[in-house]
Amino acid sequence: MCIGIPMQIIEPRGESALCIYRGQESLIDMMLVGPQPVGTWLLVFLDTAREVLSEQKARQIADALEALHLAMQGDSQIDHLFADLVDREPQLPEFLKP
After folding, report:
1. Which one of 9, 23, 29, 78 is most buried, by most CB atoms within 10 A?
2. Could you tell me the pTM of the whole model?
């Protein structure tokens, strides 16, 4: 299984960029998304940027990964990491609505 990680560019390097996530730096291949400026958030799979993200979307993914980490340690107090989903009814995506 491959999980996408939100990473932020700290230094462009031609067809690659030095990116950071949770204090760990990695050199990321940028060929699929093209050159991006410092501060841009990316969704990264296996050291390859696949998508440019908004800061909000990057935070949501990071929170979901943190919830997964906590759940694997037996912690069930993770609702705060899904603030956008708590206390609302599930909704169908637009393409599934009649």
Report:
1. 9
2. 0.81
Closest CA to 33 of 56, 59, 7: 7
Q: Which residues contact 44 (CB under 8 A, 6 or more apart)?
A: 4, 5, 6, 7, 19, 21, 26, 28, 50
Tokens representing 57?
């979307």
Domains of the chain by residue range:
5-82
Give the separation between CA 19 and CA 7, rounded to whole angstroms.
6
- Residues 44-97 have pLDDT tens digits of 999 999 999 999 999 999 999 999 999 999 988 888 888 877 778 888 889 998
Which pLDDT does position 1 carry in this prediction?
Answer: 66
The architecture that CATH gives domain 5-82 is Roll (2.30)
Question: Residues 37, 24, 31, CA angle at the centre, nearest 5°?
Answer: 40
Of 34, 38, 84, the residue nearest 59 (C-alpha): 84
In this predicted structure, the answer to whether residue 36 has a pLDDT above a threshold of 70 is: yes
